[in-house]
Amino acid sequence: MPAGAPERLTDRLQPEGGVADETRVRPSLSLLLVLAVAWIPSGDRDGRPARAHGSPATPPAASAPAAKLPEEISYAQLGAHPGRYLGRCVRVRVQVSSWAERWDPFLTRFGSGEFRALDAWSDEQRLWDEAEFAAPAARLFVRRGSAAEWALAEARRFDRFELELEVHAVLADRPWAQVSCVRPLAGGWSEGALIHAARAADLVARGASARAREELDRALRGPLHPSARRALGELVAADG
Prior knowledge:
Blueprint: H1 22-25, H2 29-39, H3 42-46, E1 71-72, H4 75-80, E2 89-99, E3 115-122, H5 130-133, E4 138-143, H6 147-152, E5 160-171, E6 174-185, H7 191-205, H8 209-219, H9 226-237
Parallel strand pairs: 1-2, 4-6
Antiparallel strand pairs: 2-3, 2-5, 3-4, 5-6
Helix pairs in contact: 7-8
């Protein structure tokens, strides 16, 4: 019996090592015959071979194939070619900036009565640059009361996610997409890493390569995602 099985599966019919009271457990002869007939496998009673003990009555059904995930692309790719993905579902990786307070839905479905709008940075943005930090690449829409809203409700700045998006419209050369699935990810920027990265960029601009590398090393101590690490490496490599 497997360890940890429910107690009811290990109940015994009589005490271990003891003899039960015969006056209580001795069945009648007729009852024994009924039980014996009931125990005989059906194959023995009707002349057909009985299946082996423990084997399934029918062959096990083939396991259902795993659901195919949508295509994974960078948000930079989606932003550069939004029409290519119109009407499609894709996966992207982003970091949370903030919830938008107000926006103009124009002719799209994404009015504030039914949706919330989340601004997020793409993995490719160099957030130590003030201009990029101030302009998150993605504005994504989350239906109010949906599982996606629940999953993002406690999201804080710099939290990183893989999101499944349904691209419903292209307007002003930007994709207007609804979040349908949310998966938390590790490896996002932190405020501390950004401070050290900004210092490294400033030192590179001033030609102080040695000090820039020190700041870079500090920035890289955090669990940054691969795109951020590559960008930081290119920052100092360009100077040297």
